[in-house]
Design a protein that fits this description.
Blueprint (H helix, E strand, L loop, with lengths): L15 H21 L5 H13 L1 E3 H8 L3 H13 L3 E6 L2 E9 L1 H9 L3 H9 L3 H20 L1
Antiparallel strand pairs: 1-3, 2-3
Helix pairs in contact: 1-6
Length: 148
C-alpha cells in the first residue's frame, strides 16, 4: 500500500470529502486511456453501460439510473447520437418522453469495451472483496446523504 509519508500530509488529508474527491479523480483518470480507444468519455461510457444492460430506455429512467439531471444528460446523448451510437425518439404513447436506444454500432461497441472493468479492477490494486466492501460503503453513504 502506498501511504503518504506523515511529514507530507496536509489537513485536507483527514477529510473524507477530499479522499472521495481525490479517489474519484484518480479512477476517472484510470478510465481515460481505456475509453479514449473506444471514442468515449467517462460519462458517455456510463450511458453506454446502462444501455448495454437495457437496450433502450426513456431519458428520465436513464437520468435516474445514472443520477444525472436532464441538462447534463442531454448533451451527452446528443454527442453519442452524433457518433452513431444511440438514437433518440419521442415515444408514440407519450410525446413528452424521449426513448434512447442503441444503434447496431452502439451495440457492437460493447464487445470492444468488454475488458474495461477488469483493467480498472487491476489498476485499483485491491482484492475484489475489498472493492465490493468499498462499493457498498459508498452506496450507503450516497443513500444517507441523498435521503435528507
Amino acid at each position: 500500500m502506498n501511504a503518504v509519508p506523515e511529514e507530507q500530509e496536509s489537513p485536507v488529508d483527514d477529510l473524507v470529502c477530499f479522499a472521495l474527491y481525490a479517489a474519484s479523480r484518480a479512477v476517472t483518470a484510470a478510465y481515460r486511456p481505456l475509453l479514449q480507444d473506444l471514442g468515449l468519455t467517462y460519462p458517455q461510457y456510463l450511458v453506454m453501460l446502462a444501455l448495454w444492460d437495457r437496450e433502450s430506455m426513456p431519458v428520465k429512467d436513464l437520468g435516474d439510473t445514472l443520477q444525472l439531471d436532464y441538462g447534463t444528460l442531454t448533451p451527452l446523448l446528443k454527442r453519442l447520437e452524433s457518433a452513431g451510437l444511440v438514437t433518440r425518439q419521442r415515444r408514440a404513447d407519450d410525446e413528452r418522453s424521449v426513448q434512447v436506444g442503441l444503434t447496431p454500432e452502439g451495440s457492437a461497441l460493447r464487445e470492444a469495451a468488454r475488458d474495461v472493468p477488469a483493467s480498472i479492477g487491476a489498476a485499483m490494486g485491491m482484492p475484489e472483496a475489498e472493492i465490493d466492501q468499498l462499493r457498498l460503503a459508498l452506496r450507503r453513504l450516497t443513500a444517507n446523504l441523498t435521503a435528507g
